[in-house]
Amino acid sequence: MRTPDASPDPDRALKDRHRKLWALGNYGAVAGEVIPGLGAALVEEAGIGPGDYVLDVAAGTGNAAIPAAMAGASVVAVDLTPELLQAGKDASGGRMDLEWVEGDAENLPFEDGVFDAVISCVGVMFAPNHVKSAAELSRVCKPGGTVALLNWTPEGFIGEMFGIMRDYQPTPPPGAASPPMWGSEDYIGALLDGLVDGVATQRATVTVDRFTEPDHFRDFFKANYGPTMGVYRGLGGDAERTAALDRELSGLAERHARTTDAGIEMDWEYLLLRGTGRGGT
After folding, report:
1. DSSP string covering 18-53, please?
2. In the chain, pLDDT over 70 holds for what percent of residues?
3. How does the average pLDDT of the chain come out, rounded?
4. Count of other CB atoms within 10 angstroms of residue 263
């Protein structure tokens, strides 16, 4: 373990808000019930197997860390939010080679070039400083090791959802980039330039069939997904704006939905990335 850089963090207040935001609701339900297969898809893309030493960055409740450990790897799951780590630890039952560590994606508490694979499944994209977190992914990866990411795209369902919610929030601080930009090929290519070699990307979709109707999706996210909960709380009981956001989120699901015998299903787009880490600083 490495002692993180103790220099003043200009994003400290923002990160404190993020930590509290992700502690709201029940992200484990979102990961486990809505997108349960995404972590395993990333682990497969990264080629993780027995003997690998793996870091899952912004691991949340372990939607990628747990499948990586089940594949036989020795895994460290790091996240800014201790409540999510505890939920993941409880879910894993301590039956695997899996360590849970509280830490900042922009200032990871690990030495240079330690891990065979560094992964993140819809996690590191939410760190406020994209440049710092990208550099950390490369720094802690062994030279020649694997960096693999799965991120929501700006054009996909979750990208659209964040675009809608942005209109109901205060203006973001200067320099704060939208999380789904990590799902843009051009953006992520520039972000990882000089840090990760041989970057290859592909777009794919996950079919979400958890909901019976558009309003069911909206109400589930209002009750369980921290960022959505935070937006509603920020409206401060403004009935008109709350109703408007309700309509927009239900409308988003309605536009993407296909009717099934059990309710609705939607395809949510993501970008899968794999490259070779350079390691070091």
Report:
1. HHHHHHSS-HHHIIIIISTTHHHHHHHHHT--TT-E
2. 98
3. 95
4. 15
